[in-house]
Amino acid sequence: MKTILAAYSGVLKGTGSSILSSLQDLPLALWPCSSRMEKHLQVISVLQFVVSFLAMGIACTLLLIYMFCTDCWLIAALYTAWLIVDWNTPKRGGRRSSWVRNWTVWTYFRDYFPVRLIKTHDLLPNRNYILGYHPHGIFCFGAFCNFGTEATGFSKKFPGIKPSLATLAGNFRLPVLRDYLMSGGICPVNRHSIDYLLSCNGTGNAVVIVVGGAAESLHCVPGVNSVTLKNRKGFVKLALRKGSDLVPVYSFGENDAYKQVIFEEGTCWRALQKRLQKILGFAPCLFYGSAWGIVPFCNPITTIVGEPITVPKIEDPTEEMVDLYHGMYVRSLRCLFDKYKTRFGLKESDILHIQ
C-alpha cells in the first residue's frame, strides 16, 4: 500500500519522467498478467472471425431492413443505392486494403493456434497461379490467416505475388460482410471473378481455391488426413485455359481445430446435411470446440506451399489433357504430404486419403 501511495504522490508532484519512474517502481503483482491478457485477446480475435462468418451477413441484412422502418431510412436507402452500383466489384478483383490485411488483430488470430506458413519454392511475379488448398476443415482457419491477412508474412515470403482467397459467392450478396471480405483480398469462387484475376489483372496473381469445398468439411475429423480431390478437375481445366501454374498447398492441423459429429451415410441427418449443402452452398456441420462450443481448439496449423506445376495455355483442353495435369497435381500433393508429415506430429505410416 505504501508503494502505491508513493507512486500516486509521484504522479501528483512530478513531471513526466517522475510519473514513469513511480509507475516502474510498482510491484509486478499489481500489473495484469500480460500472458493472460494476450490469451484473452487471441480468443477474442478468433471468436470475432467465427461470429462474423456465421452471423455478420444475416445480422447486417436484418439491420438494413429494420433501418428502412425507422428515421434512419435515408442512410439505409443511400447504402442500398451504393450496393447496387458496387454490385459487380467482387467479380472485378474486389477492393483489397493493405491496412485491413495488416490489422494487429490478425497477429493475435495467428498466435492463438498458432498458424505458420512455410515456403518451399519461389513463385515468380511474371506468372499467374492457382493454389489448391487442402483440407477444408470447418472454417479454413489456415487459408484465411495465410492468404486473407498478412499475419504470417505472405507478401514478404512471396514478393510480387498478390493472393486472392476464393470463397462462396453468396457471401458477397450480403451487406457489410461483402466489404469486410473484399478488404482482405477475398473473392467469389466463380468463373467471372477468377477469369478476371487470371486474365485481366496482369501477372503475379495467386488465386487460392479450397478444392474440397463444402463436401470435404462434412468428413473433417481430428487426426484424419482425407481430401476430396479425385473428381475435382474444374480447377485444373481452368488452369489450362488460362495458362496458370498449379500449386498444391497442404495445412497440417486444419482438421484438428474442431471435433465434429459425423452422421453415417444413409441416415436422415446425413441426407439433410447434403440437401442443405446444395441449397445454401455450404455444409451445416455439427461441430464443437473448446469454450462455449464455438471457440476452436488451439492446435497448431502449419501450411506448406508446394512446388509449382508449369501449365501450358490451351484454350480448349481435352479431357485427356485435364486428366494428365490432374494426375500430376495429385502426385505432387501426395509427395508434399509425405515429405513433411513426420515434422508435424504424424507417423511415417500415415497416408493421405484422396476421395
Automatic annotation (TrEMBL):
This is Acyltransferase. Keywords: Acyltransferase, Cytoplasm, Endoplasmic reticulum, Glycerol metabolism, Lipid biosynthesis, Lipid droplet, Lipid metabolism, Membrane, Transferase, Transmembrane, Transmembrane helix. InterPro entries: DAGAT. It is an enzyme of class 2 (transferase). GO terms for molecular function: diacylglycerol O-acyltransferase activity; retinol O-fatty-acyltransferase activity. It catalyses: all-trans-retinol + hexadecanoyl-CoA = all-trans-retinyl hexadecanoate + CoA; an acyl-CoA + a 1,2-diacyl-sn-glycerol = a triacyl-sn-glycerol + CoA; 1,3-di-(9Z-octadecenoyl)-glycerol + (9Z)-octadecenoyl-CoA = 1,2,3-tri-(9Z-octadecenoyl)-glycerol + CoA; 1-O-(9Z-octadecenyl)-glycerol + (9Z)-octadecenoyl-CoA = 1-O-(9Z-octadecyl)-3-(9Z-octadecenoyl)-glycerol + CoA. It comes from Poecilia reticulata (Guppy). Its main location: cytoplasm. The chain crosses the membrane at residues 46-67. One of its GO terms (cellular component) is endoplasmic reticulum membrane. It is a multi-pass membrane protein. Its EC number is 2.3.1.-. CDD domains: LPLAT_MGAT-like.
